[in-house]
Design goal:
With about 725 residues, the chain is α+β, with helices and mostly antiparallel strands. It is built from 28 helices and twelve strands. The relative contact order is 0.08.
Length: about 725
């Protein structure tokens, strides 16, 4: 069997289990709160899908699995073409199952633990039903702290505004704090509905705030696609993420979503003023914190989620500039990043048109031909300079959040023309004033910083072997260029200095991390090992991964050595290294002199197992990951969705069935049905012990029916087995 057909058959059999999702029953029309149905006392109580039931009883409205409902929305969104209208979201907005799923997500964020659906109290389900009805009847308001429909699970009791004094009411309404819990439930529900609709329409050039499109995916895309470019334009549209224009956001949303209820909810979230701190109040709070610098250890109340561990807080401090800006628009909450991508998707679509406009292929160039398909390895595009009239001119683009990077292959004049058009577009569409200083045109030889990685050109001298006239093999030294993606050591030092791990620029000097002063040696080493492992993973695709991770290990090891020297009164790092070894794995103690043997302490159970710091030598750091990104890369969930949609297509199924028939194969389902039919047929025709008189006639009848059945099934194996039985 040819390999393509075998792969097609394997994919059919592997994804056969998802067939129930393809035939998901259509959603019933939503029941509004005012549509009451009079129940007949003589009739039995109707439950399930066929019955109407009580519209005020939440238990009768929870009929389907919310994950299946959400999955059907993902499948329908990816099955439709991007130019088609978005599916109607009104039926999904009224499904109580999705409200319960949104409540579970908000509950997990609030308490740090997952709440099963069966553990939700009946009173909470009634409150969710009241919140859903308020949203459908346009009675819901964002920021309502006095009379919420749904209370936080951490709240002790509902506040009664009539029992509060004027001072407490004023403090409740003017003091900034987290959004009401019911607002977060509504935000989670809107995210469940809008994310599948827009993920099927977003450009593949955009990253950040999207599932499966991490900074690593952006770096790998740059390594693969941006190799042949000379000029780069780097821009920043972060002002749009800080203070958006509600009219701009709603206008971008209404191009795809036409449901008035959903659009009105988002417009209300954008226009409702949020309670924020005034500058004077923030300064007073900072002074109060400084006065109470040395205070007792805080004991978390029961049910409150624990804060992030020290290593995770430290790693968040290494976030690149492109990932620092997290949009938070009014009462939109978790919906803000999605709305930011909805607005910036217009820039992505505009740049895709410019990429087609600036594309001028050349047949003599390895980068592109007449059809725009690369003719060679794009990671090693050429061995000659990239400028010249005989070279392919093209433009590529990538965006991560509010920052974007444009690569131009051709003369600098093309980059200048594109920059001018880009300034006009941002001014007209986003009302953001950009100039040449905000959009510099830089050459690849200067190094382009993006996501704390530097893009530069590395000159290599490969050996070129070719066959000359007469069949003689000639080897010559050539000159080539490669795109180098290296981690910025300067930026790494800057982040360490900001976190107070070191001081100095030219000769960084580690500083003790006194935040871990009261922790044990084993716990401190474990925290730093987690940080080092995370840093090694962050710099996974950098060419200088070994160098930068070993530098991070040196800084953290020196910081811990100074901490232990101050904690155990050892005066210097040299004494700490002498007792605790190079990786700080031996136990330290307060008294002078040598510490007892580590194995004796471990055998007696007097000390915890101490893990030494990792990556203390450069040879211990793993190598960079040069795995090429496949052409047309998509996240895993999108690939599974598209493959599933393809397999549920009727035309694809007919092609696979014809392929199976041509190869003379049989599907497992048909094989099992044949086994069952054969078992039933033979069981009925077996002679009974009581009917020994009619044994001969029964055997004749059974043989005739066996031959007839085998002819009808078209299975020659049964005929062969029957002949062998007769011969024996």
């Amino acid at each position: 069997m040819p390999p393509p057909r075998r792969a097609q058959l394997a994919s059919l059999l592997r994804l056969r289990a998802f067939s129930s999702l393809a035939h998901h029953p259509p959603l019933p029309p939503p029941q509004r709160r005012h549509q009451f149905v009079a129940a007949d006392p003589s009739a039995p109580a109707a439950t399930g899908r066929a019955g109407v039931g009580n519209p005020l009883d939440p238990a009768q409205l929870l009929r389907d699995d919310p994950v299946s409902i959400t999955a059907s929305l993902w499948v329908s969104s990816f099955r439709a073409s991007p130019a088609a209208a978005a599916p109607s979201l009104a039926p999904f907005l009224s499904r109580l199952e999705l409200w319960v799923l949104a409540y579970q997500k908000a509950y997990a964020d609030e308490t740090g633990s997952y709440l099963p659906r069966s553990s939700i109290p009946a009173s909470t389900l009634s409150s969710l039903l009241a919140l859903r009805n308020a949203v459908l009847d346009s009675r819901f308001r964002f920021g309502n702290r006095l009379t919420p429909f749904l209370h936080s699970p951490r709240a002790d009791a509902a506040l009664d505004p009539a029992t509060l004094s004027k001072r407490k009411l004023r403090a409740l309404l003017t003091t900034p704090g987290p959004a009401p819990f019911q607002d977060r439930v509504v935000q989670e529900l809107l995210l469940l509905l809008l994310e599948p609709v827009y993920e099927a329409r977003f450009s593949p050039k955009s990253f950040a705030f999207r599932p499966g499109r991490s900074p690593h995916a952006a770096i790998r895309t740059i390594r693969r696609n941006f190799a042949p470019y000379l000029w780069y334009i780097k821009g920043d549209l972060s002002p749009l993420l800080h203070s958006p224009d509600p009219a701009l956001v709603v206008g971008a949303l209404m191009r795809d979503v036409r449901d008035k209820k959903v659009v009105d909810l988002i417009r209300s979230a954008l226009l409702t003023p949020a309670v924020t701190t005034r500058p004077g109040d923030e300064d007073a709070a900072n002074k109060k914190k400084k006065k109470r610098k040395y205070q007792k250890k805080k004991v978390l109340p029961e049910g409150e989620p624990k804060p992030d561990p020290y290593w995770l807080q430290t790693f968040f401090g290494f976030a690149p500039e492109e990932a620092l800006t997290q949009p938070d628009w009014g009462h939109c909450g978790v919906l803000s990043p999605l709305l930011a991508n909805v607005c910036l998707d217009e820039l992505d679509k505009w740049m895709e048109e410019k990429m087609k406009e600036f594309y001028k292929p050349s047949k003599s160039d390895v980068v592109g031909g007449d059809d725009g398909v690369e003719q060679g390895n794009t990671s090693w595009p050429e061995f000659v300079p990239t400028s010249g009239p005989d070279k392919t001119r093209k433009v590529d683009y990538i965006r991560y959040g509010g920052h974007f990077l444009i690569g131009v292959r051709g003369p600098r004049a093309d980059a200048a023309v594109l920059r001018k058009q880009l300034v006009e577009f941002c001014d007209q569409r986003f009302r953001i004033k950009l100039d040449n200083e905000n959009l510099p045109i830089e050459h690849i030889t200067k190094g382009i910083m993006f996501l704390d990685h530097v893009l530069c050109r590395r000159v290599v001298y490969p050996t070129l072997r070719y066959t000359a006239t007469g069949g003689k093999i000639i080897s010559e030294k050539g000159v080539g260029t490669l795109l180098s993606v290296t981690a910025s050591l300067k930026q790494c030092i800057k982040q360490f200095r900001k976190l107070e791990f070191l001081k100095g620029d030219r000769e960084p000097d580690p500083q003790p991390c006194f935040r871990m002063f009261h922790a044990t040696q084993s716990h401190t080493n474990a925290q730093m090992n987690k940080l080092l492992l995370t840093m090694a993973e962050w710099y996974r695709y950098a060419d200088n991964r070994k160098k930068v991770v070993n530098f991070c290990s040196y800084i953290l090891r020196g910081s811990l050595a100074k901490l232990y020297a101050a904690k155990y009164k050892l005066r210097s790092r040299a004494k700490v290294y002498k007792i605790a070894s190079r990786n700080l794995s031996r136990p330290l103690k307060d008294k002078k002199g040598q510490s007892p043997e580590y194995h004796n302490l471990l055998r007696m159970g007097l000390v915890d197992s101490i893990d030494g710091l990792q990556y203390t030598r450069m040879s211990m750091v793993p190598d960079p990951d040069y795995t090429p990104l496949p052409s047309g890369w998509r996240p895993d969930h999108e690939k599974i969705l598209l493959e599933y949609i393809k397999l549920t297509d009727q035309q694809t199924l007919e092609e696979q069935r014809s392929c199976i028939r041509e190869e003379g194969l049989i599907t497992p389902q048909h094989y099992i049905s044949m086994l069952v039919w054969s078992y039933k047929k033979n069981a009925v025709l077996l002679p009974s012990s009581k009917e020994s008189d009619h044994e001969g006639s029964t055997e004749d009848l059974g043989s005739d029916t066996d031959e007839l059945g085998d002819k009808e099934l078209g299975n020659p194996d049964h005929l062969h087995l029957s002949k062998v039985a007769e011969m024996s």
